[in-house]
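Human: We require from you a standard protein entry with sequence in single-letter code and fold as tokens, and nothing else.

Assistant:
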Amino acid sequence: MQYDPIKRKLGVFFNRTPAFRKLFYHLLDVLLLRSWHVRKAVKLWEKQITGSQTILDAGSGFGQYDYFMARRYPGWTIKAVDVKQEQIDDCNDFFRKIKLNNVRFDVADLTKFVEGDTYNMILCVDVMEHIDEDEKVFSNYYRSLKKGGMLLVSTPSDQGGSDVHHHDHDNHSGDGSQSFIDEHVRDGYGIGEIEDKMKRAGFSKTEVYYQYGTPGKMAWKISMKYPIVMLNASSLFFILLPFYYLITFPFVLILNYMDLKANHKTGTGLIAQAWK
């Protein structure tokens, strides 16, 4: 399933005006369960620190988390990096227009990016599942954090985080059906696996827990999977999309809230935290 072309089309539509772009961010914050969990983790970390902070957003994409942090924490200095020049140019242009000057966007390859003892927190959302050399990147994060700094990762788990099912692993047809998101290089992490990799990178303390339990999986199918499947089938569905979300929005909101408040024994997503 191709996800990037859909993202590009949405980006073109919502970049028509800064007001549209802000609306897009708010929609992502409400519809994407990972955003609920990431913002909760950032707010909990906020309570443990004082003073200005230096943040790295490793794999910034549309810049939605930078928008959240830059507005909520004007005293923080945020550097956001992404491998795609078009994303970086787009975000720099938008943030300049809305005069959020505590964020800077740069192109970077995370397998090579190291800025020693620089950051109080590194945020990495939906990135590690795209990187083959993940242990090298974890090591780069460790080296780039200040002592006592925290790494916050959101990534799919190995419990079906890329919407992979057991029968998919027997599929050798080459049709891309092994993962809902073709761009993923791994189906997801186990809790023990990602903890071991972060510890081998040097981190002294780790905490990993599941997100996207039963309510979250239902919410994701309604808010993300089904619309993406339909948009891949036909661009005409863009016309129907607002009406689809008008109907499904209350259910997604309730399911996301339930997932955020619950402790999950298993789930298709992980929040992984590590401290230097």
In short: The radius of gyration is 18 Å. The first helix runs from residue 4 to 14. The first strand starts at residue 54 and ends at 58. Strands lie at 54-58, 77-82, 103-107, 119-125, 145-156, 205-211, 269-275.
